Amino acid sequence: MKIGLRTAVCAGVCLAGLGSNAAAQGNVTVFGLIDTGLEYTNHLDAAGNDKVRVMPLTGLLPSRIGFRGSEDLGGGLRAFFVLETGLVPTNGALGQGNRTFGRQANVGLADAKLGTLTLGRQYNMTAYSLLGADIMGPANHGLSNMDGYIPNTRSDNAVGYMHTVDGVTVGATYSLGRDASAAGGPAATNCAGERAGDAQACRQWTAMFKYDTQRWGVATAYDLLRGGPGAAYALTDSDYKDKRTSFNGWFKAGNLKVGGGLIARQLRREIAMDNKLWYLGASYPLSPALQLEGQLAHLDTEDSPDDSTLATARLVYSLSKRTSVYTSYAHIQNKGKAAIAVSAGSTVGVGMHQSSVMAGIRHMF
Length: 365
Known about the structure:
Number of helices: 2
Strand content: over 45%
Oligomer: single chain
Radius of gyration: 21 Å
Strand order of the largest sheet: 1-3-4-6-7-8-9-10-11-12-13-14-15-16-17-18
């Protein structure tokens, strides 16, 4: 059944009311952020046309509203839930393939000694492995432009486990049907799975090992997506696979933070493809309120001249703990027949270079 925007609003209002009643007990929180601004981009097509737009997807971080809660069950065990909706601030639409709670919708149990078990739509281990090393994060001028899967590292119909001991974090997820939305785009690839007679269709599993200290950290993750009938990106058979193996790390030297890594992808379908996404970034506080950040990313497609290199620099000024303003500049060089846009949700002429400058505001609550 397709759930419309009115239903989503009703759900949000009802849960907000629940949150106000339960907040006195300290176990339900309403949270979110709104982030958007203005952007100029050139070379949108072969004619070299440009455009000014209000950013629909993300500036620094994707807009959302969510509800999380927990209950102490005693003996160190607690139950929890998370419901989180992605929002498009330009028009108020829902994100993540028009899902009502497209960012997260899960419930679970957590124990300090045994770890956390989560059931439902949730972030998978590829998402957690990038924390710390990816300086740009899920920004408009970040790695999401080079690989549309990166900002959509969530799995439907999933079981997840994670545990941290003395800085070591291990985790895994297993999905019986990785993407139940057919709305289109990287966030809705029409692979619901759970098919009678085809146990492998649309399955996904991810695993992660991560070690962090106060000054440095390393991580590795493995992510395997299987195809299924009607799935997008030509993954129309359960024998087809899309695999990503990632390695990354970060360190701090005084106030300077440096992070980088590699995501190696193997796409096995009727036409196979391998590529490697390298990235290296750094951040430095120019003052207690002003942060300078930059990152260089290169997508190398094996046995092909169709490569792309993205360079980004941005300034973030914190007006308060909740409100920030920012400006960001990015430039991408496409070679061969590559046509990766410098900006999320945009376009570029085949083989063309492209630049983008944006400025915006983010408010968290």
